[in-house]
Amino acid sequence: MGYFRPGDVALRREVLHGEPWVVTPTRVVEDGPDLLVVFTAPGTGFGFYPHPRTHHWQELGRTHWKGIGKLQLHRPGDAYSVDLYWQGEQRRFAGYYLNLQAPFRRTALGFDTLDHALDFWAPVDGDWQELDRDEFEQMVADGKYDPDEAERIRRTGKEVEAMLTAGTTWWDPAWASWEPDPDWPVPVLPAGWEDHPLP
């Protein structure tokens, strides 16, 4: 399966218990053997699949991405993405959000993953902090993650903690100055997205 070109639309799909769950169309910024970078634009609409477990965004009536937008850096095999956030009309860089998730798997239309709830925030002007530990443990108790998967997620969390504590982050800080192409329209879900098969 080939790489995407800058400007392509790639569908970021979450798969839970072997079934598609939610999908977000993203804009490809860079793609290659070592790094996949995508942008979620403000106003991007989500697609929700019929699933035994209703997605929490759907329960909350959250149908579109709000805010300035986020850039996501993915390395093959990593069980997390590095998300960059900005604030205000001047796009002041706010910091890095390390989103624990299943290592991405390429598909014909984008890539599949699953958010793992446990996250870390490393602001540009302060110390890093762990987020959503209680939410993650509740999801384990509710059966979203089985015990083995939950333990793998906890191990990833420890690895991220060690990296942030040691200051041995791998990504290029120049990404903080990145800006989206003003000519890019907000990506939309293509016709037939509901029928896109699992890889």
UniProtKB/TrEMBL annotation:
In its UniProt record, a GO molecular function of this protein is:
hydrolase activity
Q: Which UniProt keywords apply?
A: Hydrolase
Query: Which superkingdom is the protein from?
Result: Bacteria
Q: Which PANTHER family match?
A: PTHR39159, UPF0374 PROTEIN YGAC (PTHR39159:SF1)
- Spell out the Pfam families in the cross-references: DUF402 (PF04167)
**Keyword Transport (UniProt):** no
Matching Gene3D superfamilies: FomD-like
In Swiss-Prot or TrEMBL terms, this protein is called DUF402 domain-containing protein
Every copy of the DUF402 domain together lies at 55-167
